[in-house]
Amino acid sequence: MFTSDFLYYAALAIYCFGYYVAAGLAINVAYHRCLTHRSFRLRKPLERFFVTLGLPAGTPIQWVGNHRFHHRHTDEESDPHSPLRDGFWHAHVGWYIGTNNPFVCFAYSIAGPLRTIYDGWNRPRTNQEHNHLAADVAEDNYYRFVSRPLPYLFACSLSVLFIFGIAYYVWGLIGFFIIWITSAIVYNLGDAIDSIAHLYGARPFEADHYARNNPILGLLTFGEGWHANHHVFPASAKHGLLPYQIDLTWKIVCLLKYIGIASDITVPSTEQIEAKLINSI
Asked: What is the pLDDT of residues 172-182, one digit of tens each?
């Protein structure tokens, strides 16, 4: 028989894990593979739902514009977040807040809900210079609305109130701090794609950038860590293109296709992949 204490903390673990999965898939499925790269299409209500879940990551217009610019100028001088140009901390989080100071960057990286509230004010006001690359996203009335300063701040504040409020109400301070840690982990895993995944891992393709396949990030970020693959085939809905590369996000996309709410899925052929490999599969 399970004790009441075991069930109490098991429920907290499930709550935190659910937050981790929901946040990760919202960014991977909606912001990144669907909205930014148009590697597949989702039915609009579901697309907006996933984007809404992922709003603490940044406004849809700013996020997409910066990411598309990053792909056009990967690891070049103008790349917004290349660790090879401006150092690890700037690529990891410093570019969000305009600093290379490692102490400020570290404090920001572990700030959890405080970071979400700060970003609610800061993100719609900074790093807007590439918004023109997200003109298609800005055509959507909902994305244009939530990318404005006041609606975005409200959305981020509501997210903190809801997620952390439930944790505190049900589990008290221990629940509040455990979900804080979970939030910091989620943020840093996403940030690690900009920093660690350009420094550590394999580069199996001929390329003029330094994006790498990092197997640890590949697992922890549900497939986003196969970053070398992604930069060579950015329009691919599948990032785990090589044998034994687990890509949970791709499995979700396949499931959404199976139930009829995802379509127009783009994946490179085996011949296209082999043509770019330094060594054939």
From this structure: 999 999 999 99
